[in-house]
Amino acid sequence: MKPFRLSRRAILRGAGAALPLPLLEIMASGNARAEATALSRPPVRTAFFYIPNGVVQSAWNPVDTGEQFTLSPTMLPLAEVRSKLLVLGNLGRVKVAGTDGHAQASTCWLSTAAPDELSADGYPLKRSLDQVIADHAGIQTPFRSLELSCNPFEDNRESVYFDNISWYGGSHVASSLRDPQRVFERLFRFDEQASRRSVLDLVAGDARSLRPRLGQRDREKLEEYSHSVRTVEQQIQRVRARQDDIRRLNPQVPVKPWQAMHRDEFIQVMGDLMILALQADLTRVATLMTAPERWATPLKVEGWFEKPIEHHSWTHNQRDDGIRQNLAKLDRFHIEQFARLVQKMDAVKEGEGTLLDNTMFLLGSGLGSGELHEPTNLPTILAGGAGGRLRPGRHVQYPAGTPIANLWLTMARIMGLSRERIGDSTGSLEEIVG
Amino acid sequence: MQWERRGWTTVGGWGGIVAAIPILLCCAPSATPADRFDYHSVRGRRPGEPATGQNDSPPRQPTIPSDTQSAAVPLSSDEFTAASKQFCVRCHGGDTIEGDLDLTSFGESHAPPPTAGILQQIRDRIAHREMPPENEPSPGDTLRRRLVATLDAHLRERFRDDAPGVPVVMRRLNRYEYNNAVRDLLHLRGDIYPLPEKTIRIDSPYFNPASGRFPDELSVRNRALGKEHLENQILTGVTPFAIDLQAEGGFNNRGSELGMSPVLLESLLALGPNIVGSPEFDSYCSAWETLFAAPSPAAPGQPPAPPPETAARERLARLLEIAFRCRVDDEVLDRYHQAFLNHFAESLSFPQAMKNAVAAILSSPRFIYLAEAAATDAAPLLDGYELATRLSFFLWSSLPDEALLAVARDGSLLQDDVLDKQVERMLGDPRSRALADNFARQWLRLDRMVAAAPDFDRFPHYYARIGCEQWKFGVLLMVEPLLLFESILVEDRSIMLLIDSNYTYRCDDLQEWYGEAMPFATRANENRFGAWSAQHFRRRPLDDRRQGGVVTSAAILTMTSSPLRTNPITRGAWVATVILNRPPPPPPDDIPPIEKDDRAIESLGLTLRQRLTAHQTNASCAACHARIDPLGFVLENYDAVGRWREKYPSGLEIDSTGQLFGELPFADIVGLKDQLLDHPEIFFRAFSEQLLSYAIGRRLDVNDTPAVNRIVARVEADHGQFSTVVRGIVASPPFRQRSQGTTVIDLPSTEKGSE
Question: What is the predicted ipTM?
Answer without folding.
Answer: 0.87
